[in-house]
Structures are given as structure tokens and as C-alpha cells.
Amino acid sequence: MHESIIPLLSELGIEANYQPFISREELLKIIGNYEGILIRSKTEVDKELIDAATKLEFIGRAGAGLDKIDVAYVETKGIEILNAPEGNRDALAEHAMGMLLSLLNNLNKADAEVRNWIWDREGNRGAELSDKTVAILGYGNMGQAFVQRLRAFDCRVLVYDKFKKGFGTKNVEEASLAKIFEKADILSLHVPLTEETKGWINKDFVQNFRKDIYIVNTARGEVLPLQDLLDLMDSGKVKGAALDVLEKEKFDKLTVQEKAVFTNLFSRKNVILSPHVGGWTFSSYKRINEVLVGKIASYFKRD
Q: d(Cα 75, Cα 58) in Å, to the nearest integer?
């Protein structure tokens, strides 16, 4: 976490024990002494850890996703969960916007070709965003921040969120999946990883689109099965993909079969990749702390 976390907590009168390299075994031994724990994305907060955390009152997630936390079990223990999507939503929205524009304008491909003395203007003719319909799945902090950026490009924006209603405006159309399947040129994913969304955007789902589409995924890799994506690109149903997240992000843990899938993906010129850094800027690194500590302060005020 950003170095600001210790002084920010100190201002609240909280004594912090910063342990960025603590092992799972060591954490299990000491967690029973603490009323709170702050985690990033690598710490698994499961039943074993919660049962060992006999004094725990709150869990602070320095970021947005809660997929590493057994939320249902935590709630049975009356432990508060605090996260900070407001801290990196702007960073993620800008990153998604950059990836989409790069994809539509072949920037990765064009850059590589020019560096290899290939001057192919026609082969790198781009597509404009202004005449496209962009579909957003998920209208939380990340989805809303991305839509805010899209408005500058005068494109049509359709949004589907299973858990929200009545958010449509003159610039954002609240849409059914059926309408998205009929109208969208671009699909951008902004849903959390849950049992319901895992593998959701598979081959069967994407085949419902009337048009061939582009896909942007800055949510979670497990939402979009990679083998299905490859098949969809082979068929032409998916024209290109911008991926900040992958199904598995620990490359040294890949099986031989998984590595073959990744190698296939990496070879494609109509795919843009980044290593899960969409919400990971110098500014957001610090801002996440500020948002999270603010929520901790509010939690104690309620008590």
C-alpha cells in the first residue's frame, strides 16, 4: 500500500502494523490480536482466516473487488467490509478509454509495423467511436466513470445492470440485454467477479449479438473465458479485444494447455493487453488510501 497509510491511520488514533510481505501462516498466527485488517488483492479472506480473527471488527479492501473475501461468511460474523472503488475509478476509466481508442485505431499494430519499416496507411485505417454504440455491463463506480469519458465522443451508450434501475438520462440509455444484443458495436465489462458472473461472457452469450463486436475487459479475467474469446475471434464475431485482466494472471502457474491458449492470444494483432494496471496509477495508489481511511473514520463514528 502507499506509504501514506500509516500517518493517515495514526490521525484516527489507530496503531498499524504494516506487513506487506507477511506469509499466510504468519498472518493466521497473529490475526487474532487485531480489530481490523487492510488488504490488497492477493490476500484470501476465507473461513479459516475469519475463524482465527476472533477480535476482528472490520476488513478494509484497498481497491474495489471483493472476490478474495468470503463476503457471506464475513457477514455472518458481523464484520464490516469497507472498500475503495472511488479511489481508482478514474484511473480505470482513463485506462479503458485508452485501450479502446488504441484498439479501434490499430495503434499497437501500426507502431510495431513502423518500427519494422512498414508504412501501411490503408492497412491501419481506424474506426471512429462517434458512430458506434457502446454497451456497458455493470453500472457501479467503474462503469459510471467510463461512461463519463465516453460522453466526450458523442457515441450512443447503452447500460445494463441487473441490480440497478431508473438511472437512464439523455446521455445514458438504461437497456435490456436484448437491446444490447441488437444494437451494440462495442461491449465493455464492469461487473464484479461472482459465482453468477464467472464465465458469463462466453461463446453462447456473445453469439447473441447481431453485429460483430469489439470487447473491452477491465473487470475480472474470469468473467471472459479465453478459449471462447479465441474461437469468437476466429469466427469474426469478435473483431478485437482490449484486455487488462486475464483468466489467470500468475503465468508461472499455467498448465501446458493454458499456456497454449495464452500464446495464441498473445500472437494476435487485434488484441491489446496490459497487466491488470487499469486502476493502478501514481495518483490512485495514494487516493485509495485516502478513501479507505475516510470510510474507516466513518465506521468508527457510527459506533
A: 10
> 218 vs 1, 60, 151, 282, CA distance in Å?
21, 22, 19, 18
pLDDT of residue 295: 97
Selected catalytic residue, list 35, 48, 196, 249: 249
Q: 190 an active-site residue?
A: no
Residue 111 CA to residue 120 CA, distance in Å, equals 11
Query: Which of these is catalytic: 2, 149, 268, 276?
Result: 276
* Residue 276 appears among annotated catalytic residues: yes
Identify whether the C-beta of residue 201 lies closer than 8 Å to the C-beta of residue 224.
yes
DSSP letters of 117-146?
T---SGGG----STT-EEEEE--SHHHHHH
Buried-exposed string 175-186: b where 16+ CB fall within 10 A, e elsewhere? beeeebbebbbb
Among the options 95, 190, 220, 287, which is catalytic?
220
Q: Where are the alpha helices (DSSP H) in the chain?
A: 5-11, 24-30, 47-52, 71-76, 85-104, 107-115, 141-150, 177-183, 203-206, 226-235, 256-266, 282-302
Q: Supply angle C-alpha 180, 268, 257, rounded to 5.
A: 95
pLDDT of 41 reads 84
Distance in angstroms (rounded) separating the CA atoms of residues 18 and 22: 9
Q: How far is 64 from 87, CA to CA, in rounded Å? A: 8
* Whether this model's pTM surpasses 0.90: yes
> Which residue ranges form the domains of the chain, and what is each CATH number?
5-86+281-302 (3.40.50.720), 89-273 (3.40.50.720)
**15 a catalytic residue:** no
Looking at the predicted structure, is the pLDDT value of residue 303 above 90?
no
Residue 296's Cβ-count burial label (10 Å; 0-12, 13-18, 19+) is: buried
